[in-house]
Amino acid sequence: MTTRTSVRWSLGRAAFIGCVISAVLVAMHFARGVEPYPSQTLAGQIGYWLGYAGIYPIIFVIIAAIRNAFIPKDPNAERRPSVIGNFFWPATFKAQPSGVARFGRVLHWLFAMGAAAFVIGGVYTLFATYDTNTGLALIAFGGGICFLIGRALRYILAGE
Fold first, then answer.
1. If DSSP codes are grouped into helix, strand and coil, which group holds residue 81?
2. How far apart, in whole angstroms, are the C-alpha atoms of residue 125 and residue 141?
């Protein structure tokens, strides 16, 4: 009697499938020409479309995570870091980092926290004060540039 071993589902692939379904549904929505949500603010429109388009990837990731929780992890499986994931947060580390490499890592962490603060402040500005220009600028430029500076410093100083 042979036993069938189940393979864990990829959370990234589950999110991608949810994004494809979401894109098809949003395209069908626009093709019908239906006014989706009579909002007076841009923040309300953004929130509506993020909820409308973002719920399907979230559902697919939750289903895959619940399924993966009941499947035992293969101890012999080799984990390969993805290129995009490695860009945002490196998965390959130096075994014996020097002081400069550690300083680069700390700077990356500090700038990542600063980027998160910019994003949180931008979301607050979008929804609490309804100032869309300032909120989107905080998220895109403040958070994005802060994160990229930290990532560049880690690449330069730590070589990761």
1. coil
2. 14
Q: Where are the domains of the chain?
A: 9-78, 82-160
121-129 contacts, C-beta under 8 A, 24 or more apart: 126/43, 126/46, 127/43, 127/47
Distance of CA 122 to the CA centre of its chain: 16
* CA separation for the pair 102, 109 (Å, rounded): 11
The reply to whether the predicted model has a pTM over 0.90 is: no
Q: Which tokens hold the place of 66?
A: 């619940």
| Tokens read off for 120 | 């949180």
Instruction: Give the closest residue to 105 by CA, choosing from 155, 143, 60.
Output: 155
Give the mean model confidence (pLDDT) for residues 61-86: 74
Token code pair at residue 74:
């293969």
Tell me, what's the pLDDT at 7? 78
Residue with tokens 């989706």: 36
Query: In the predicted model, what is the mean pLDDT of the chain?
Result: 78
φ, ψ of residue 50 to 5 degrees: the values are -65, -40
φ/ψ (deg, to 5) at 120: -65, -45
Q: Measured between alpha carbons, how far is 158 from 90 in angstroms, rounded to an integer? A: 11
CA–CA distance, 24 with 85 (Å, rounded to integer) = 26
